[in-house]
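Second attempt. The first submission of Ubiquitin-like domain-containing protein had a stray character pasted in from the spreadsheet, which I only caught after the job came back as garbage. Lesson logged: always re-copy from the clean sequence file. Corrected sequence (89 aa) follows.
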Amino acid sequence: MKVQLRVNGPRGDEKVLDLCEDEEDLKRLTVLQLKKRIVRDMKIGDDIRMVFRTEILEESSLLLSYGIKHMSTIHTLLMLPGGMMGRRP
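This time the job returned cleanly.
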């Protein structure tokens, strides 16, 4: 059985991705591998953050460590340049 994920894109679009062939393959996939797949398949820039439930996904982590499984939903957020938090002119 193929493992699929729902991905909510940064512009409100939703897509179901065929991620891998089975649960064994899923155990080896990293967040970075998922990010590359989302960027390619959804044709978006790579300046995104991914969120599962309420956690921001760290690129070096395995998907399994977040409890991601077949038909989980991943949300993507655009990372905008700028900032200056806490500084006042």
